[in-house]
Structure formats: C-alpha cells, structure tokens
Amino acid sequence: MARSIRRVVTGHDENGVATVISDNRAECILQRPNRPGVTLTNLWMNNKTPAAMERHDDPVDGPLVLQPPADGSVFRIVQFDPENPQELAKLDGKSAFAEMGAAANIVENARHPFMHRTDSLDYSVILSGEIYMMMDEEEYLLKAGDTVVQQGTNHAWSNRGREPCLIAFILIDAVK
Which one of 49, 56, 69, 159 has the minimum C-beta count within 10 Å? Predict the structure, then answer.
C-alpha cells in the first residue's frame, strides 16, 4: 500500500500575512501495472525559472510525466516497494516509461529493465528504507538520510530489502 503524502502550501492572504493556503493529501499520483510496487507522487511543479511566487492554483493537476517542464522543476516523492526478481524479469521498462511520456529515456539492454536517463539535474534524499542505485557498471546502497545529486546519468533503483523505500526528488530541467 502506497503511503499517502500530506502537502502543505504556504502563501499570503489579502493583507499580506503569511498563511497556509492549502493543506491536503497530494492527489497527482501514478501507479501502474507496468511498474508494480512503485508509486510516484508529484507535490509541486514550476514551468519556468525563476519560479513564480504566490501560486494559488494547483500546478500538478495534469498527467504525471517523468521529466520536469522545460526551464522548470518538479518536486516528487517516490515509493519503491521491495522488488520480486522473478516478476521484474518479465516487465517491459520501455512500456512503463512510455506511460510517463519517457519511452526514449529507457536504456536498451541494460542490466535492470528500468535503467533510464533524464535530461535533468536531480536532487534526491532517501527518507526511509534503503535502496540500490544502479549505474552502468556499479551500484551503491543508499539508506535513510543519504543524498544523491544526479547529473543526467544512466541509473535504476532496486529495492532488495523488506521494507518500502521513500525518496524525495527535486528534478530541474538541464542541458547536456
């Protein structure tokens, strides 16, 4: 069962006083049969840099896509449940990424079916659990509190443990 994420958004009232303008459960969630055990929850998105302040609309009410908007950023939390190696071997990474508008981002014939690359600078914080970050030839075990700065590299996430792993991601549009 995917964890529900509370999202609190601040702003100002009509008198310029700082206040909470929204306090609810994030609703931009993607779960799909092509990538079982993985839940993406978008919390916020900006479509330009510098970011517009004082937004009162919900910028993540559309379909969830992998990449941040051009010149923008996206803030999301992803839950990776423990993988089943037999089930994983039957999955098609390209189809799963196509559902996020990113079929071209998959790395063909990689050692993990969800090895991919994005044209973004990604800041990641492991919030709970542990996970392996697989690179082209190496892998690194990451635990709660660890951080990753990913600069458009091929990678996959593999939860070989017994507990779900939650990772907070901030993806910023980048150029090669």
Answer: 56
Check residue 51 and give its pLDDT: 86
Relative to beta strand 18-25, strand 73-80 is: unpaired
Distance CA 143, CA 165 (A): 9
Q: Which domains does the chain have, with CATH numbers?
A: 27-173 (2.60.120.10)
Nearest of 16, 112, 113, 102 to residue 67 by alpha carbon? 102
Please name which of 123, 107, 127 lies closest in space to residue 169, comparing C-alpha atoms.
123
Over residues 103-122, the pLDDT tens digits come to 999 999 899 999 999 889 99
**Residues 28 and 64: beta-carbon distance below 8 Å:** yes
